[in-house]
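Teaching assistant here, posting this on the class forum so everyone can see the example we discussed in section. The complex has two components, and the goal was to see what a joint structure prediction looks like when all of them are supplied at once.
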Amino acid sequence: MPFGLLKYGLSSEYPAQHHFTPATELKKHYDVVIIGAGGHGTAIAYNLAKYHGITNVAVLEKSYLGGGNTARNTAVIRSNYLTEEGVSFYRESVKLYNNLSNEFNYNVMMENRGQLTLAHSDAAIRSFRWRAEVNQHMGVRSELIDRQTIAELVPNLNMSEDSRFPIMAGLWHADGATARHDAVAWGYAKGACERGVELHQLTEVEDIEVVKGRVSAVKTNRGRVECGAVVQAVAGASSIVAKKAGIPLPIHCYPLQAMVTQPYKPILTPHVSSPHVHVYVHQTSRGEFVIGGGSDPYPLYHTRATLDQRETLSAAAMELFPFLAQARMLRQWAGTTDMTPDYSPIMGLSPVENYYLDAGWGTWGFKATPICGVTMAELVATKKVPDIIKPFELERFYNYEQINEAGATAASH
Amino acid sequence: MKLLTCPLNGQRNISEFTYGGEYHPMPNPNSTSPRKWAEYVFFHDNEAGVVIEWWCHTASSFWFLAERNTVTDTVIRTFEASEIFKRRIDFVEPTSGDIT
């Protein structure tokens, strides 16, 4: 009803929800300071406030809520990884995502569309069989499917045997999903702020005071704040922030680029990924095709879009969906991904006693947001590392115990 | 950054090159501790600013060094490895017990 909509829009009692209280003065002391108000930072704050009763918490954000990689990722949720540690971790995250709208009483637009990864070679089929076995063992819906089943799932996919890399098989992950990435951060921030957490935007941490192996305070552009504990959840700025606390990290930052087309009628349900031609494609609920997966070939702290990536992503997307040759691009953008050598995150304790790391999220951060909030909050509140994140500790690099997920990420590297 | 100047082959398209990691002096693999070696292999400065790093001109397999700004995406200069490595480095096979 257009008149109803117009009336709603012009109403002086516009019933807009306030997501968080406006910034106030910084207090002198907080029990917990969280650096970074993206999905992860706000999720940690939310869980601390709701489940651990710790509400004297400040989330410090140099820019604005959810404006970094939370806004830039391509909103893929899945758990079909390769290692037992990885699968059981992301599996819990997918479970939490399925109930997230109820948890918040706020719609995060979770859509269980399934995820399809394509094999264009015998080697890929072998690795998919391996992944499917591990996934099923860990209770994740994941199976190897043939060409006919792929054609039924995705009728518009180019199944020609004359293409450069014909599709041979697929890894079908029925648990795969997508959600509105902004709403995830907003929902967490809203829930946290309702419980007393303070969100301070335009507040940049400039220095971290470490005395005798403990953080005593952080210095910001708005003054000094004493703190009982600090969590850093700053994605692309992980190395820069950790360095202020004197902690070296095994991270290199690469821009990851993606783009969207004009909207189309709904014709593609699952998320389709091809590690071989280096692209992943899905259609948003607005109808746009999201085309992603192009990492720049060298490290960079820059979020510019390049013609090179536009060409390679377009070529790959057109190989899978030839009709996209006619599509007009609406936007192209990049996010700074903090890549670790083993493509697994760095979570948990750091060499500084009350300083906790939530870093190395590369291209897999969005899907881990809810479980990250739960486990990091538990760690900060109890000072005990939850079993599920123990394998992801920073110390694993010193012990030569990496968790190799390089083959199970969708982006090209 | 679309072009890179190889000290051997001159200015070429960036797609002809492979990035080879940050330049750090290598600790002696026979005498350093596993912890120090892990730091050398896995940990990076990941500096937002000017870095010195290895590059390879893929077509000719020529390795060289570049000074690059990782914020502005510009190359300041490229130079031959001989500017840093004045003499040949020989690798001695460790005898058991050498590694602590």
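For the discussion questions: The two ends of chain B are 44 Å apart (CA to CA). Chain B has one domain: 3-83. Think about how each of these relates to the inputs above.
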